Amino acid sequence: MKQPPDTTQPPSPARREALGAFGVLSAAPLMALASSGDAEAAWAEQFDAFDYAAARTCALIPQETAGPYPLLDVLGDPRMLRRDITEGKPGVALALTLKLVNVNAACAPISNAAVYIWACDKDGVYSGYQQPGHDTRGQTFMRGIQLSNANGVVRFASVYPGWYPGRITHMHFQVYLNANTGGSASATSQLAFPQKVTKAVYDSALYAGRGQNTSVKDFEHDGVFSDGVSLQLCKTKGAVDTGFAAKLLVGVAA
What we know:
Oligomer: single chain
Number of strands: 11
Helix content: 10-25%
Structural class: alpha+beta
Shape: globular
Order of helices and strands: HHHEEEEEEEEEHEE
């Protein structure tokens, strides 16, 4: 896949020490979240109706750049073990479900993998960094980690991401096998969304301040997705007023 320059810096010695101390993520906080009864649970129930068996052929997810805003230091923070990644940020609701499968084992589900996801807010701003016109250092909105269940599934409650100049709408994610965020990611990729859905969201009142993305009009003009999104395009359904559910089958070499 074509990639824009990746300005990500290697982990600092302090971060390596922190990750080493934290080691393998604990499933206990996730169990508490699963029984919390928040609004995301209703989205997840609706989403379970999707038929993964009818999804596109299982294939290795394309490797992509982590980009300039991965904020990898949060991998050692237990507070990031959460389904709701919004931290109260407004936007059109997005219930995201990823199913991890092993391309080396007849597409068997991958359980107990840590999935770290991050995206910009509805205004195109990332947490944790100084950006043109915004200083969000110390903030962690639109970021979170979940462990895949026995079916290889992780779910996140988010809002539909906005856009910023030079990129089409997307979300980032990494997969760490055996919940070991102290090791190397087995997959680093990005999620794409149907343009029809994106247009509807950006026409809505909450996104009217920025409107449509005039800098990148389609996937073929995007530096990451220009060579195709067939394995990264989320199947999405819903409406602006009620929110959207999106899902993707993610093939990983485990």
